[in-house]
Specification:
Helix content is 0%, strand content 55%. It has strands at residues 6-9, 14-20, 31-39, 43-45, 51-52, 56-63, 68-78, 83-92. The protein has a four-stranded mixed beta sheet, with no helix packed on it. Strands 2, 4, 5 and 6 form a four-stranded antiparallel beta sheet that branches.
């Protein structure tokens, strides 16, 4: 995800976000663990539960307060023992306009 991009989500939506760690130089290493955090904490991981493959991580997010920006951080540990972290920002909006 591009750190210059602020994503949008409404409090009523449940949306999934995926990080492809091969773009961060994962190489032939694979993901062994993945932990997601959201700040402020009134936006939360929804069902289905966060998941990961050998090279990607996914979280489903719901709730939140309109007018609030959320920092969503994924920390992974690789099978090779590296720890990597990626953060993206979500602007919780009251509604979306097309």
């Amino acid at each position: 995800m591009n750190p210059d991009v602020v994503l949008q989500q409404t409090p009523a939506e449940i949306l999934d976000y995926t990080i492809d760690w091969t773009t961060r130089g994962l190489g032939t290493d694979t993901i062994a663990t993945s932990v997601w955090t959201v700040f402020p904490t009134d936006m939360s991981a929804a069902s289905p539960a966060p998941s990961f493959t050998g090279t990607t991580t996914t979280v489903w997010l719901s709730e939140g307060t309109a007018g609030t920006y959320y920092a969503v951080t994924n920390t992974i540990t690789t099978a090779g023992g590296r720890e990597m972290q990626e953060t993206f920002v979500i602007n919780c909006v009251p509604q979306r306009f097309i």
